[in-house]
Amino acid sequence: MKTYNYGEKRPEIHPNSWLADDVVVYGDVQIEENVVVFPGGVIRGDIAPVIIKTGTVIQDGVLINPSAGNKTKIGENCLIGFGSIIHGAIIGANCIIGARSLIMPGVKIGENSMIGACSFVARGTIPTGKVFLGIPAKEKRDISERDLTMWDVGKKTFREIAQKYKNSK
Description:
twelve-stranded parallel sheet; 169 residues; UDP N-Acetylglucosamine Acyltransferase, domain 1
């Protein structure tokens, strides 16, 4: 991983987190304990802060950055899917953002919610416990217990993969 200061702002990364060697972290970024960031991740905290809470898994090729006047915050135990862009949004705890999704400035996503793969969320608030998908993303249904169980399995799998990489050094 490479880190860069932005003026006086420097990344803070918990030592128990794992970030792949090619991940780049800039500026005012706080990464809490047991966060996993797979290859190709870019996390930029230049014009506002970025906060990634404990236990979140960020898959390959994800871009996370703020926008003017909008910090980015990703809650505990989230899974951010391959190639997604999180741009100045607030994501609640235990959310899934499907691969290649785009979340725009000012969006707020409630806890235990899912944004389906390849979705576009342009504005507004996604309520807690809902599945949204499409372009633009629209509400499809409530989250089920099965969804929550499957998410836990997925996050556990990616944490185990990261641990193997971490132990291989």
